[in-house]
Queue: 2 jobs
Job 1
Amino acid sequence: MKIGVVGKGGVGKTTLSALLARSLADRGRRVLAVDTDSNPNLGLSLGLDPVQTEALPTVPRSIVVGSRGDLTVAELMADYAAKTPSGVAVMSALRVTEAAAGCTCGGHATVRSLLGEALDTETDDTIVDMEAGIEHLSRSGGTLAHADVLVLVMEPSLKAVITARRTIALARELGIGAWIGVGNKVGSDHRDLLARLCADNEVPLDVVVPLSADVVEADRLGTPLAPGDADSVWTAVESLTDRLLETASVPAPQ
């Protein structure tokens, strides 16, 4: 299963990607999490320390389709993925290390190539934590063109829901036939608001992850959420995992 986690900036994609990856790994699945943020932090949410996260090598475009395009997936994983304490392998596809370095098009092309490879020889699930917005879906070929399903992450705001609506339109053009709408950081007083915004914009709201002080504190400290904290958040993530596994077993609509 190849999963793209997408949404407006600040909605909690990285945190949710990490929780989802951990949930799948806890079920005995081999999970690769790919960080496409030019300022990568997914490793922190999966239990790497700052030094380990900073040391993650970025996968060069040439490794996937260039002079070493014959590299096996096992070799690629060995050289560029790090195992985290959560049991999830993490890989960095983008990194900006200097000012005025130009666009990150090569990194997005790398992600598209990675998803087009036979990753199932080494992984059961690949989760791509995408950069904010929808630009990655508008690139030539689409960064997530090979994704099986998109997780549309939304906070309770009109801007976040509109971003999800636009994402769905672009996903259809790319031939991605499955998506799951996830409300994230939703307080009890904003649940109805988010439901109404989604209904008005014809965006599905399949799972709601509640606002949690434990998640906020973990993000502040740059540490993974402990299994015993935020039971309601973990319950929602498990529900999302169930839906993804169900979606993956159903053929995409024609």
Job 2
Amino acid sequence: MKTALITGGTRGIGKAIALAFLQRGYEVVLNYCNNEAAALATQEEFNMQGYCPVLLRANVSEEEQVKTMFKDFFSIYERLDVLVNNAGVSLVKVIQDTSLKDWNRIFDVNVKSTFLCSRAVTDKMVFAGGGAIINVSSIWGEVGASCEVAYSASKGAVIAFTKALAKELAPSNVRVNCVSPGVIDTEMNSHLSASEMEELENSVPMGRIGLPSEVAEACLMLAESSYITGEVLSVGGGFGK
């Protein structure tokens, strides 16, 4: 049976990705960081649907915690077929109000975690004869967003990381791709007012906000396609194009 580990996998897009892989028959490990009660609630929700995901707690921007998480993972499973680097945070501030601490936190969670987790599994995937790494970026990483300079820069870095690592690992049959969500109905957009959400919705050519499950579908496709690597797949109904 195939395995998948999703960072930030107990809420929002990560939770939807986890469900998609569980429904496809994968053994799924959900990484979370701080909110154990919410993680346990998500696990129980999946249990009630007949699925049994494993929870592993780690701050994936901390090197030693990442090492411990994957040591625990490989004590349970022989191989990892799919890594989804989904953990991320946002920041809405004009550049004058963005502190160095803000900048470092955004890059730690959104970029450093992607590097640390990918590095931690590369040898295992190469030795196993292949695997898939899927990184979650954002449409703002492609086109940039006013008042979200730090966030946009971090997600742009994830895209560049994806393209470079895909070339590096392609000879070993490890595929590295990226999904780039547009405006998706998650808690990350909770700072927006109803009028702001309506304005965004009207900017989407397909005329509606996207669902986490639609991002999950894209991740599953990239995980199971044998000849796609180095791609950035936008999932946003044409938004930002």
